[in-house]
Design a protein that fits this description.
82 residues
C-alpha cells in the first residue's frame, strides 16, 4: 500500500513521517532531564501532558476508498498549512 503524508500542515506531516510504529503517548527520554520540578526531579505530570498534546498533532491514519492506500489527515479542521 502507498502512504501519503500530505495533510496540508507541515508540522502534522513532519510528525507523520515518524512512522507507524509510534502509537500511544510518546515521551522522548530527554524530556525527563529537561522538564524538572522545583527540586530538580522529572516533572512527570508536565511531561505526560506535553506528550498528550504532541500526540494530538500526529496525523490520523485512514484507508483511502479510492485506491486502497493509506492517507494521513490532520485532526483539527482549523489548523492551517504552515
Amino acid at each position: 500500500m502507498k502512504i501519503h503524508h500530505k495533510t496540508g500542515n507541515e508540522i502534522v506531516d513532519a510528525i507523520g513521517q515518524l512512522g507507524d510504529k509510534l502509537t500511544g503517548p510518546l515521551i522522548p527520554y530527554p524530556w525527563f532531564t529537561k522538564i524538572l520540578d522545583q527540586r530538580g526531579r522529572p516533572y512527570h505530570l508536565a511531561i505526560l501532558v506535553l506528550a498528550e498534546i504532541v500526540g494530538w498533532y500526529r496525523p490520523k491514519k485512514a484507508l483511502s476508498k479510492k485506491d486502497n492506500s493509506y492517507v494521513f489527515n490532520k485532526r483539527f479542521k482549523r489548523v492551517n498549512g504552515g
